[in-house]
Amino acid sequence: MSAPAAARGPAALELRGVHKHFGRTAVVRGATLLVHPGERMALIGPNGAGKSTLFNLIGGALRPTRGEILLHGKPITGLAPQRIYRRGLARSFQVSRLFDRLSAFENLRCATLWSLGYGYAFWRRLARAHDANARAEALLDQLGLLQRRDELAMNLSYAEQRALEIGITIAGGAGVILLDEPTAGMNRSETARFVTLIRRMTEGRTLIVVEHDMGVVFDLADRVAVLVHGEVIACGPPQVVRADARVQQAYLGAALAAGLSAEGG
Q: Nearest-CA neighbor of 218 among 203, 240, 200, 201?
């Protein structure tokens, strides 16, 4: 595991009784969760469980109806996404959000500029942005995309685009990373390589990932949180959650759980 058994200090991310209603419809109902610094947490649940809504609440795209969200012990409830980003939390999206007509290098350089203090006038000083250029080059190397440096994002393969998005997400130096279904649409070999990439690129950071591929979940996560009808019904190490009768009934199903147990030995 990447996280210590007994983490000290404030949680990297904490949700306290978070609710979100759309009119009379309750989508998130009292979600409570604590993520330790440096651990990898997977958030799973059936379709309609509220996972995307919860991610939007954490990232600031939505404001909770009630409840509190803390980042490193400090409240971020209701802050705008850019303010949350500046406090050290970044997220990727299920649908790629690249600048299609910029190169892989230019996409990464754009992502680093704000964190290096260039602000909204960065376009005036790109020729002197040596620090941003160096960081973008280093990220390309870590992502295995150095040979694709000058290729337009729109011409990259799907797996390369997803890798580039991982790089963009961490380019600003955020310590808490949210990934929304990072392996969606990949074949088995691409998924295996991508899990290795995620491990390498998020080393030393806190990771919360929404993922439907149970193989990825049980391979990558230190702990798994299960969201059903907007509530966290179980949270713990993968092997404990896998054996939880409530999880089997609500989501995995006894047959699937048995198959995963056999697969994991």
A: 240
Closest CA to 157 of 168, 144, 170, 169: 144
pLDDT at 254 over 70: no
| CA pseudo-torsion sign 191, 192, 196, 197 | negative
Q: By percentage, how much of the chain surpasses pLDDT 90?
A: 68
Residue 118's pLDDT is what? 64
109-124 average pLDDT score: 67
Q: pTM for the complete prediction?
A: 0.84
